[in-house]
Amino acid sequence: MCSGGFAKCLGISLMPLAIVCVLCNILLFFPGGKSVDSQHITEQVWYFGGILGSGVLMIFPALVFLGLKNNDCCGCCGNESCGRRFAMLSSILFAAVGVVGAGYSVIVSAVAINHGPKCVVSINGTDKQWNTPFSDGDYLSNKTAWSTVCLEPAGVVSWHLSLFSVLLVIGIIQMALCAVQVVNGLLGCLCGDCCGGSDGA
Which InterPro entries match (predicted)? Predict the structure, then answer.
């Protein structure tokens, strides 16, 4: 497969992943599927790891990759393949942007999973207040604490953990795909659109 065609496949893969990340980040604004005051939303949600990092910053590289197959930049110096090589080189820069965006999302998600969600906890068995009762990830193996420590909203821990885990996994996949495009872009720049074949293929 030629470099441009392979890049297009990567772009097609990245687009739905970016959309899923945006949706996951939006859902995190509704802990446990409930609407709460903004001050009660987990801090890491406001970092917009899914919307900004794995979403917006990933859409730009995806669009660039999708257009590489037929992009020759109008050629240069009478050589059509020259334009394609430049396009492949520019795709490396956009792939780097994608790696940074996905990496940001991965870091935010990992921190959020470790800290746990903000929820209503019991103080002295009587008073209740919003707090972040888990701070070192010890709750991950103690499912009993999910409902006994976090009283409200119902199911907030599993909601938080599931969505941030999705963002974490997708972020890693996005980083891998963008890293692959860096290699693909280098090959396309050095060898032309099709290594061992015609650049115009």
Answer: L6_membrane
Residue 125, judged by CB atoms within 10 A of its CB (0-12, 13-18, 19+), counts as exposed
Token pair in block for residue 114: 């470790």
Mean pLDDT of 166-174: 97
The pLDDT value recorded for residue 70 is 61
Q: What type of residue is 47?
A: Y
Cβ-Cβ contacts under 8 Å for 28 (sequence gap 6 or more) = 41, 42, 45, 50, 160, 163, 164
Return the number of other C-beta atoms located less than 10 Å from residue 126's C-beta.
Answer: 6
Q: Which helix (H) or strand (E) holds 122?
A: strand 119-123
Q: Look up residue 127 and give its amino acid.
A: D
CB 41 within 8 A of CB 117: no
Task: Classify each residue of 179-197 as buried b or exposed e, where b means 16 or more C-beta atoms within 10 Å of its C-beta.
Answer: eebbebbebbbebbbbeee
